[in-house]
Specification:
With 149 residues, the protein is α+β, with helices and mostly antiparallel strands. It has three helices and six strands; from the N terminus they run E-H-H-E-E-E-E-E-H. It has a single domain, classed as Hotdog Thioesterase (Thiol Ester Dehydrase, Chain A, Roll). Strands 1, 2, 3, 4, 5 and 6 form a six-stranded antiparallel β-sheet that branches.
């Protein structure tokens, strides 16, 4: 997929977010930390889609972010709206990896890609736990994200 091509419909979570003036930094583009907030918004939608936050409320077992990374491809500037997409790249024994991409609606260009490792965590015991079979099935039932650039 080229950097300017529109996203395929395979991404299971697609969230449109406005760029706010406050997202800009002194250099005249969206600050790098804002991309992590974009990822977070899409991640929470995915968590809700697989009922992960509901499980956490009931069992005190839920997701905890282990790591995240961003690859910046082109700057974003206000005013704009971004399309933030995410999906499950892989599921391990105690964690899963999400892939992301951020696309400018003004230019149509891919602005950033990234990923996050999410660990299943028992908040009562303070330790990681196995991804439950029913959660694994819900995660794997989502369309796989496009691997992108």
């Amino acid at each position: 997929m080229s950097q300017d091509a529109p996203s395929p419909p395979a991404w299971p979570v697609r969230v449109e977010l406005p760029l706010l003036w406050g997202h800009m930094d002194a250099l005249g583009h969206v600050n790098n930390t804002v991309y992590l907030r974009f990822f977070e918004e899409a991640r929470i939608v995915l968590f809700d889609r697989v009922e992960l936050r509901a499980v956490r409320r009931e069992t005190r077992i839920g997701p905890i972010l282990a790591s995240t990374s961003v690859r910046f491809l082109r700057p974003l500037v206000h005013p704009d709206t971004v399309l933030v997409e995410t999906g499950v790249r892989s599921v391990g024994q105690t964690s899963f990896v999400l892939a992301y991409q951020v696309t400018s609606r003004v230019t149509g260009g891919l602005a950033a890609t990234g990923d996050s490792a999410v660990v299943m965590y028992d908040y009562a015991r303070g330790e990681k736990v196995r991804v439950a079979d029913d959660l694994r099935a819900r995660l794997l039932a989502l369309p796989a994200p496009d691997p992108g650039p």
